[in-house]
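Hi everyone, sorry if this is the wrong subforum. Our group has a chain we'd like a structural model of before ordering constructs, and none of us has done structure prediction before. Sequence below.
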Amino acid sequence: MKSYQFLIFFSIVMLIYSSVNYYIYSRAMQAIPADSGIRIWFKWGFILLVVAYVAGRFLERAYLSVFSDALNWVGSFWLAAMFYSFLFVLLVDIIRVADHFTGFLPQLLHSPQAKLNMLYLWMSAVAVILIAGHINAINPRINNLTIDIPKGANGLKELNIVMASDIHMGTLIGPRRTEKLVNTINSLKPDIILFAGDIVDEDLAPVIRQNLGKSLKMLSAPLGVYGVTGNHEYIGGAEQAVKYLEAHGITMLRDSVVKIGDAFYVAGREDREKSRFSGRNRLEVKELLRNTDMSFPVILLDHQPYELNKATEAGIDLQLSGHTHHGQLWPLNYITKAIYEVSTGYKQKGDSHFYVSTGFGGWGPPVRVGHRPEIVNITLRFR
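Answer:
Right subforum, don't worry. Here is the predicted structure as tokens:
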């Protein structure tokens, strides 16, 4: 990404971030009595929370340390707290506007104590959401799926696939979570393991410092471990990320196709962000499969589930994607459902099957609300 593009993007993000936080802060301060000692503690505590994530990400690139880790953890939780605080305050303001014109609220709710109680209710509700959402985020489910492919696979009757996407290995997805991922995958005794992008979370330094690749080397599947790039590999530097992953046992498919066991193909597309970060376009699906014998089953890995019709027209049998996180925080799932033809789960279009995973890890907040992270176990039956 060109430096001026990044500067514009960063400026817009910071403007939105600052505006939302100021809106929350100003409304909260209105609820605290002017003579209360809580005000000063709330002020400086709020500033620390707001600054933590931005400071942590910058410090992580300048000097990776326990302190930068702590700032990232605090700031990441604040992103979720900020989001739900914004929704809460916005709802209260809508009610206040409605009451201004109708006067439907009892006078008791206009008292200073009622406003302070509302602040306590807001803080308690957000705390409960964060705790429950974090517990949910660190306990992925195993989603089982059986798909029939009307093609022969050179005598192979079934294929046991374990697929995961959006692991986001780094500061928040560290050794314990990575080890849990590997152990869970191996327990499913897969024939082949497929990763549909965003294996690392932008910056590779925390991955290297925590030696997360050590766990990846323990992945076991007789037909191999394959992956593709996601947008986060490109944000952090795709070449370095790919080199690291391949050095730790993952064969990365970058606009390439491999035939496995003379029975089926696995094709992997570069992430659609390739053009923005490298200035070079990725291959279209038909071009990618130009020399592929389509009488054999074809599995396509494509991180972002856009333009599914192109994969159908190209004749793929199964596409595996991620990226959406299904919104990660309710009600953002309604936005991803509006953007993507498939925000999560399974869909068949013609003879092509699609599965979009909610992902194993998460971006930003280590919190999931409204759905669970997952590892996908797919049984392909050939006929």
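For your construct planning: The chain is about 45% helix and 15% strand. Residues 66-102 form the longest helix (37 residues).
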